[in-house]
DNA sequence: CTGAAAGCGCTTACAG
DNA sequence: CTGAAAGCGCTTACAG
């Protein structure tokens, strides 16, 4: 059963192809009666305008593409959900390109999809700046969490949230903390590292930085040895996945959170579901995705779009993974220590 | 700067459009010298064949669409990752449609994308059978986790895994267990419920069924009251997200896993990252996605594709959320009980 | 308000 | 092995 085309509808409705076309794209040019007649027979025939033909004719594809490093990461799947929903609302379909954290694949995906989309949303691109600019020169591009002058961008400012987290930890008596980050290429991680360093200095905390590599649960777990060696009592992680990994690594060693160690994450997607629930900086992932799509689509509608930078504030959400600093075990001080030996050694 | 078209390349290379076209799509029909000449000038001009025009002309889009109920669910994001990667490998781009667990949106997405894709992968469709068949009659469709005669499908058979889980629990001394499922529309949930019921009967366990509604962390947490009321000592959940929710609900009430209660999940994406790590049935999500794409694409290549059903076995992975049944508290039995009172009440 | 016709950038029988 | 030409299904000035 062949798909009905505009010709068939025109013939059946007794009008020209142009009229059928207008009934769908510019009904205000037609008599209500004509519109109704055309739409009616279209409905009856199951006709839907062919997007491909429309795209070739108008030069507008009605599609956008979202390129991201890893859909399996909750931050990006939440972001993708927000982006896709918003694009759908505005009549656009969404391509997904997963670059597997690779700059090269990102480049290839951009090139391959260019002809089929009206614009791109690049979430946390791993591409270097010149290449991003090259693609942006050919097709409208909005980047998320990358601050490039002259390119539309949505930035989730998690700095204040991380600062608040450091203040929280300082207030709880922690003196030595760590920031566990992703590789240098990540704008977000750099931003968070800076906030932690600055806030730590301001509150007299010593701060060590650890690079976990590709942000994953394993990466978090694997850096626990380093954390303990460094003698810190709290860690702020680049995201919740890494934070959860750190908690798992601590649990493996019999350390409890927050009793023995405090952990802070970021994104706040899985944070409420971990055990214990993570204190985390909310990154408003879905909103970031939706805003990026809006920025892109508004730019398309506008002949000379002003380049906008949209900033979303990420605030701290305090849950159960942060608590008072543990009393230092190796060198107990205070007068009660000698008078009250460890109960476990009593027997 | 206008995008170069086939005409420009033809003129510059001193050949016809047909020759340029062939140089890209069927070079074996041309002299190597001609191919080289054409490709050279194309390269120099920055020419890339316009996919949209090609699609209109050939009727082949070079795209597929993946429709799923919720990208934010780890099962589907993992599946999407596998599908997208495989499609890319075979030269296809992937549209994502998130139906938000809604049959209607699924229907709309199918219709809107139909003209732009060569086929669909429907993961756990919420659509009723007649509508799925309607769409399958127009465009090649492969469904995942839905058993529809005559339609290509990939089924993850988690039945044996759930059976193994029930056997495990029975061996650990549990006598009353629960299956916490999703709504009736889910083929997977029905399959799992059947396996649990059958295995429970075979091993003399009493089995209660609880419907958690839309599978989510909250849904899992919310059904804990019902679980405890029902007097069961273990729960098997439709997926890991719900299982994790159940663990959270138990923790809220001061119950420990697996000490006081055992929990089993399914999918095995987040299972290794929860605390305690979940005993779970591996659903091979990424593989399912990749296989579905292969099935679809192989079908496209084949003039009269044989309808295949591809079955993936899901096996049980035992971790820390399952343990011996707790001794029944209200009616302690055994001779030692009176002789040895609870130590905590001693003081 | 509506229609006839050209054109979007390709592909592909059909000739030669 | 290569070219001229029709056609894919729309949209949109241009007339009327």
UniProtKB/TrEMBL annotation, chains A, B:
What Pfam families does the annotation carry?
LacI (PF00356), Peripla_BP_3 (PF13377)
A Gene Ontology molecular function term for this protein is:
transcription cis-regulatory region binding
Carries keyword Transcription regulation? Answer: yes
Which keywords, in A-to-Z order, does the entry hold? DNA-binding, Transcription, Transcription regulation
HTH lacI-type domain residues: 4-58
Renumbered to this chain, the Basic and acidic residues biased-composition regions fall at 337-347
This protein is called LacI family transcriptional regulator
Q: Which organism is it from?
A: Ancylobacter aquaticus
């Amino acid at each position: 059963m062949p798909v009905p085309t505009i010709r068939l509808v025109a013939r059946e409705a007794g009008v020209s192809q142009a009229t059928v076309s207008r009934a769908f794209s510019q009904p205000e040019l037609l008599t209500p009666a004509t519109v109704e007649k055309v739409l009616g027979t279209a409905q009856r025939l199951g006709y839907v305008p062919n997007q491909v033909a429309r795209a070739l004719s108008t030069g507008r594809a009605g599609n956008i593409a979202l390129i991201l490093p890893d859909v399996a990461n909750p931050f990006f799947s939440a972001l993708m959900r927000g982006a896709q929903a918003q694009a759908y609302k505005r009549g656009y379909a969404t391509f997904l390109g997963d670059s597997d954290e690779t700059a090269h694949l990102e480049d290839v995906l951009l090139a391959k999809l260019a002809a089929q989309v009206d614009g791109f949303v690049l979430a946390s691109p791993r591409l270097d700046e010149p290449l991003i600019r090259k693609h942006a020169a050919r097709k409208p591009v909005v980047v998320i969490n990358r601050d490039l002058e002259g390119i539309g961008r949505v930035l989730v400012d998690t700095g204040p949230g991380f600062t608040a987290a450091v203040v929280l930890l300082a207030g709880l008596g922690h003196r030595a903390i760590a920031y566990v980050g992703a590789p240098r290429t990540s704008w977000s991680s750099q931003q968070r590292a800076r906030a932690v360093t600055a806030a730590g200095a301001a509150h007299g905390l010593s701060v060590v930085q650890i690079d976990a590599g590709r942000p994953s649960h394993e990466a978090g777990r694997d850096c626990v040895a380093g954390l303990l060696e460094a003698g810190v009592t709290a860690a702020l992680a680049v995201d919740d996945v890494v934070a959860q990994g750190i908690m798992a690594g601590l649990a493996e060693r019999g350390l409890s959170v927050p009793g023995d160690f405090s952990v802070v994450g970021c994104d706040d997607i899985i944070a409420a579901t971990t055990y214990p629930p993570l204190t985390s900086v909310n990154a408003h992932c879905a909103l970031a995705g939706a805003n990026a799509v809006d920025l892109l689509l508004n730019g398309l509608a506008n002949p000379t779009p002003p380049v906008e930078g949209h900033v979303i504030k990420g605030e701290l959400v305090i849950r159960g993974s942060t608590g008072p600093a543990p009393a230092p075990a190796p060198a107990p001080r205070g007068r009660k220590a000698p008078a009250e030996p460890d109960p476990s050694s009593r027997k």
